[in-house]
Design brief:
Helix content is 43%, strand content 14%. The chain is an alpha/beta fold. α9 links the parallel β6 and β7. Bound molecules: pyridoxal-5'-phosphate (PLP).
């Protein structure tokens, strides 16, 4: 609450917009507050491992950027992003099978801003969006601000169930299809190649943009790499990418890869928000990648997170009681747990915190607030010791409450 010395409550006195009033504080941020209490082993966040941030190489890259480009790195710059970074991103995408030109790329302040720009550009109050069920809570927050409604589609091991999508397209005439096709947040599920092709066909047939929010595809530990939705769908797809999980989230550099004609639309929308993304960080990342540092660094991340995923999954197998299911993702930062239907992960969280372990309960990820028996566990930001101990504590908690 915003209170001054005279105890005036400004949030009540001033007429804050109804859009903002309807925004709920991110439940995950609230849970993070609890779980950051001393001694709590937290599987709640979605944070990369800070000890892996390439501090020295970023320092060098920043020095290089300042030396080479001088005052330009501290100056205003283009809303679509600095050209060399856009070129490099387009080239990297093309090398990996997603044919892209510089004109397809708009640099954003992280993936989250790209989601927001999409929402701002497309959504009018009451419009429907097809999402996975469950889906990324940060996207729901951005879409909620514009008063979107949802046509959520259930998933199996191969991602969204395609027949359900077509039914919902016909019934709700959605503006967008929003998917996290690789190592989904929150479930860790990856959409199969067959489903990708079917989804593209649907998007193209009904002329609905497919938004592929893809922060995790570079972090694959096992299984075959599957080409991106955009590599099948070309201009049918707007891809959202970010350096947050493969370099560092604090730099706030992401991008959007879409049809050339739509980029100026997002550029206009972005101008209203922040004029342009941080110039220095763009040059720094450019120099970092140019120096050949990114791909070896991704290998380091993969090795570290793979060991943590293996340890978490193995400890769960050894300790979790019968009746609990979980996903075993081939990449990314999260896995997803389903307790028996009658159990509530939300009700159990205070007991978990009393045992000094925390997770995010699943219901905020469901557009309709259901999924009470589900929870998300993050392994990237935990220590090996913490993973073993934390999972054992959760196992005891679940057993005691079954
Ligand atoms: C699916 C998804 N989209 C977007 C984001 C936000 O990424 P960024 O930090 O680049 O804004 C996240 C972060 O956790 C995410 O999981």
């Amino acid at each position: 609450m915003l209170v001054d010395q005279n105890d005036k409550v400004y949030t009540e006195l001033w007429k804050i917009s109804t859009h903002v009033k309807s925004l709920e504080a991110s439940i995950i941020r609230e849970i993070l507050k609890i779980s950051s209490q001393p001694g709590v082993i937290s599987f709640a966040g979605g944070l990369p491992a800070p000890e892996l941030f390439p501090m020295e190489d970023l320092k060098l890259a920043m020095g290089e950027a300042i030396k080479k480009y001088g005052p330009a790195v501290f100056q205003y710059s283009l809303s679509r992003g600095i050209t060399p970074l856009r070129e490099l991103i387009a080239q990297r995408a093309t090398e990996r099978g997603t044919k892209s030109d510089t004109e397809n790329i708009l640099i954003t302040a992280g993936g989250q801003q790209a989601i927001e720009l999409v929402a701002r550009a497309f959504i009018e109050p009451g419009d429907y969006i097809i999402t996975e069920y469950p889906t990324y809570v940060g996207a729901l927050q951005a879409f909620n601000y514009y008063q979107a409604r949802y046509a959520p589609v259930k998933m199996d091991d191969e991602g969204m169930i395609i027949d359900e999508i077509e039914e919902k397209i016909i019934k709700y005439k959605p503006k967008l299809i929003y998917t996290i096709s690789n190592f989904q947040n929150p479930t860790g599920i990856t959409m199969s190649e067959k489903r990708r092709m079917e989804l593209i066909k649907l998007g193209s047939h009904y002329n609905i943009p497919i938004i592929d929010d893809n922060p995790y595809s570079d972090i694959r530990f096992s299984g075959e790499r599957i080409p991106t939705l955009k590599s099948y769908g070309g201009d049918e797809v707007i891809a959202i990418r970010t350096f947050s999980k493969i370099i560092a989230p604090g730099l706030r550099i992401g991008w959007l890869n879409g049809p050339k004609e739509i980029i100026p639309v997002f550029e206009k929308v972005k101008q209203c928000t922040d004029l342009h993304t941080n110039t220095l960080c763009q040059y720094m990342i450019y120099e970092y990648i140019k120096a050949g540092k990114l791909e070896p660094h991704i290998k380091v991340i993969i090795e570290d997170y793979k060991a943590k995923r293996d340890l978490m999954v193995n400890t769960m197998r050894d300790n979790f009681p019968e009746g609990i299911k979980w996903t075993e993702p081939n990449g990314g930062l999260f896995l997803w747990v389903e307790l028996p239907q009658y159990m509530s992960a939300k009700d159990l969280l205070p007991k978990a915190v009393a045992l000094k372990v925390a997770y995010v309960y699943g219901s905020p990820f469901f557009p309709d607030g259901k999924g009470m028996n589900t929870l998300r566990l993050n392994y990237s930001n935990a220590t090996h010791k913490g993973i073993v101990e934390g999972i054992k504590r959760l196992a005891k908690l679940f057993k005691d409450n079954m």
